[in-house]
Structures are given as C-alpha cells and as structure tokens.
Amino acid sequence: MAFLSDRRDRRRSFWRRRPVLTAQFVLGALMLTVGAGLRLGDIYVNSSGSIPMGFYRAASQSGLTAKTGDYVLFCPPLTPLFEEAHTRGYLGSGVCPGRFGYLMKRVAAASGDLVEFSESGVRVNDRMLQRSQRLSADRDGRLLWSPEQMKQLLEEHQVLLMSDNTSLGFDGRYFGPIARMQIKTVLVPVWVW
C-alpha cells in the first residue's frame, strides 16, 4: 500500500511544481476536446488552422461592423457549394441553416475593394494575399471550385473572408465573396498561439 501512496504523492507533486505545464495540459486537452467554434459565454474557442488557434471574445453581434483585418465568426450561406463542402467534411455540423457549423476567418476585403481570383492566388487592390493560391483538388483528389467572377469590385453588402494562417483553408478563394449578413460577430483574440 505504501508503494501506491508514494506514487500518488509523486504525481501530485509533479503537477504542483509545474503550474505552467499544468495549465498548458488542461488548455490543450480542452482544445482537442471542443473543436473549432465552441462557445463559452462570449468566448469562442478555435482549434482549426484557418486563423490562429486560441480563445476569442465576441466584440459585436453584427457583421455590419466588420472591417478589413477583423476576425469574424460566420454561418456559411445555404447554397449547393456549401452543401457539397459540408458533405465532403470541409465544414462541420452546427446551428447554422443547413445544420452547418460556424466558420472563423479574417476579412480580407470589403466594400469598394477590387478582388481578383487567379491561378497564382487572390489579389485585393492589386496586392497578392499571402498563402492564397487555390488548389485544384483536395487530398482525396476531388476537384475544388473557383469563384464565378474572376475580377470584381465588392459591393456594400459583400466581404471576402480568407484563412490567413494556412494555405489549405476552405475560404473565399473557393467560394468567393459572401454577404455581410452571414457574419454573426466580430472576434477579438483573447489568448492565441
């Protein structure tokens, strides 16, 4: 019995001596458990690669306030393209129309910006966005989409949402601009890595 008691005491002592390691372990376990888009009050947890992983606070409840550079949480529109993306597993299930899950992206362009889609990537006002080159097929060899208009001036109600953290994100390079009304909230990073 003394052996088991001694082992338990050593384990407790290990975690008490390493509070930073303990916090990282708990947060890592939480991130792995919850997935992207989990809401904890006004805090959202992101574990996808689209934007930096971490915790985000809801800053507003309207997409009307979103501006270029902001992180946003949005419901994908109920269109055949997003239905197919859901079937393929590019987006999870959730509370949005069509039972789509929320997506988190960065606003790359807004009203009045000139957006151009090409094989080499996405340009906004003649500036190439980093990591914006479109893939022709996914990992399973299925063809990927490209926006219908290759060059367009965004209207008041439109935004272009991109993954600024990865070149593999399912974002505006495939589905083009979306309506501002799809944005549920602007997100402010609280603790990201």
Question: Can you give a write-up of this model?
Answer:
It is globular, with a radius of gyration of 20 Å. It is built from 4 helices and 13 strands. With 193 residues, it is of the alpha+beta class. It has 2 domains: 1-34, no CATH class; 35-192, Umud Fragment, subunit A.
Offer a few descriptive terms:
193 residues, single chain, Umud Fragment, subunit A, alpha+beta, eight-stranded antiparallel beta sheet
CATH H level, superfamily name of the largest domain = Umud Fragment, subunit A
Overall structural domain count: 2
The helix content, as a percent range, equals 10-25%
Spatial order of strands in the largest sheet: 1-2-3-13-4-6-11-12
- CATH-level-2 architecture of the largest domain: Ribbon
Give a short synopsis of this structure.
With 193 residues, the chain is of the alpha+beta class. It has helices spanning 2-17, 19-34, 80-88, 172-175; strands spanning 38-40, 43-46, 54-60, 71-74, 93-96, 103-109, 114-118, 121-124, 127-128, 151-153, 158-162, 178-179, 183-192. It has two domains: 1-34, no CATH class; 35-192, Umud Fragment, subunit A (Ribbon), CATH 2.10.109.10.
How are the SSEs ordered, and which strands pair?
Layout: H1 2-17, H2 19-34, E1 38-40, E2 43-46, E3 54-60, E4 71-74, H3 80-88, E5 93-96, E6 103-109, E7 114-118, E8 121-124, E9 127-128, E10 151-153, E11 158-162, H4 172-175, E12 178-179, E13 183-192
Antiparallel strand pairs: 1-2, 2-3, 3-13, 4-6, 4-13, 6-11, 7-8, 7-10, 8-9, 11-12
